[in-house]
Amino acid sequence: MFSRTSAVAKSVSRNALATQRRFASTKTIREALEEVIPAKQAQLKQLKAHHGQAVLGDIKVENVIGGMRGLKTILWEASVLDPLEGIHFHGLSIPECQKSLPAAPGGKEIIAESMLWLLLTGKVPTEAETRQLSRELAQKGELPEYIKILIDSLPPTLHPMTQLGMGVAALNHDSSFAAAYERGIKKSEYWTHTLDDSLNLLARLPALAARIYRNAYNPGKPIPEINADLDLVGNYVNMLGYGDNHDLTEYLRLYIAIHGDHEGGNASAHTSHLVGSTLSDPYLSYAAALYALAGPLHGLANQEVLRWQHNMQKEIGSNITPENIKDYLWKTLKSGQVVPGYGHGVLRNPDPRYMALQQFCDTRPDLLADPVIQLVKLTYEVAPAVLKEHGKTKNPYPNVDAASGCVLYHYGLTQFKYYTVIFGVSRALGCLTQLVWSRALGLPLERPKSVSMDTIESLIKNP
Ligand SMILES: CC(C)(COP(=O)(O)OP(=O)(O)OC[C@H]1O[C@@H](n2cnc3c(N)ncnc32)[C@H](O)[C@@H]1OP(=O)(O)O)[C@@H](O)C(=O)NCCC(=O)NCCS
Prior knowledge:
By secondary structure, the protein is an all-alpha fold. Among the domains are: about 135-300 and about 415-440, Citrate Synthase, domain 1; about 300-410, CATH 1.10.230.10. The protein is built from 22 helices and 2 strands. Strands 1-2 form a two-stranded antiparallel ribbon. α5 packs parallel to α12 (about 245-260) and α10 runs antiparallel to α21 (about 420-440). It starts with a helix and ends with a helix. Residues about 1-25 have low confidence and may be disordered. Bound molecules: coenzyme A (COA). Coenzyme A binds near residues 301, 333 and 339. One of its GO terms (biological process) is citrate metabolic process. Keywords: Mitochondrion, Transferase, Transit peptide. One of its GO terms (cellular component) is mitochondrial matrix. This is Citrate synthase.
């Protein structure tokens, strides 16, 4: 096993060396970051020095008891979420990213590497920079032996998200940041070790996630080795056992790239930010984030949506009409449940990520002919009016999860419980990016003030 592994590592590193030579004039992601960090540090210094006392908004009692909705309290560089326009990555909307970010060779969709480059540096990478990053990640992607033993020792019935969090946390055995901190490094060097850990973690996530899938759903099936000529998601799909399905590979490239970051206030992003602020290494910080992602109001919603859609299909049978869907929506709402895949903590319009996935379906006749995907489209026509009439949710429109799972299901990836793991592979792009920036900017320990109800009442009486 060891010799096979090291042979792969050698061949990958030979390829990587060749690539470095071929793209000698190409910047590495570290060099690209080194170029942009000083300007951001200067910007933060200016803000602190000249605008430290500027007011960004009021804190109302409803914010404190309402999950801090709308409070502008987290510094997050990678993306900004506008309630009406949706997500923008350094100013680029999803359609703009689709136009400008490099795809995989032979593919059309954005890939994780080009999105990571944009998130980290704020710049659109060249084709060559993207390929170089793919090779760097492939070179680092092999799982250490102890992680394989750990994951193989877990009951395959343990929820895949629990397994993913455990594997990610245990990868901190090799944390460059933790080791350097113990040696006693300068604060100005924190970000370089955070970047090393972040790239290593991202590189290893596909093999970890694929091993969890194999153990749970295809026990004993060999997992293909990492191919140095493939992008991160190309390798992931290959290791999952679906490498010959080009459309699924392209779908996952798109899904993983556009789902990679959704500003800093969502539960997983906020969790990694908080834990990282204690100077926990990126592995532990992201493991914590994964357990936030595992909640049904957040990442687990994609598995809930498909379950709900299948139940609806069972109940209404082949007679899919707007009236039947409407009745089923009311049945869900009257039983006190939420309609999964609808609503959002910030968005007040249809989610552009949903629109991008729907567009992907619209260009493929096999997807359009799938009854579940037809159901998703029809639900989109009916649900907003029903949710408006119901009158509770502030956003009656679909979010990304309304469409994400049914496409996976169509392509044969039918194990709902696994879907949030794919989200977990994706969201690492944004959470790890911000960890690098938080350390580069020297952000402090996060420590908001809590208040009791008595304190709130006395503050109301004596402001
Ligand atoms: C995403 C979500 C958690 C946001 O929650 P939020 O910020 O509290 O949303 P709102 O402020 O609009 O909620 C106000 C009320 O509407 C309800 N509501 C929100 N979305 C709803 C939905 N899809 N179906 C039914 N009711 C909904 C809330 O439960 C809340 O009810 P309450 O006052 O009885 O507690 C929520 O919309 C939801 O549960 N959606 C379904 C799960 C989902 O798709 N999650 C993935 C998010 S990307």
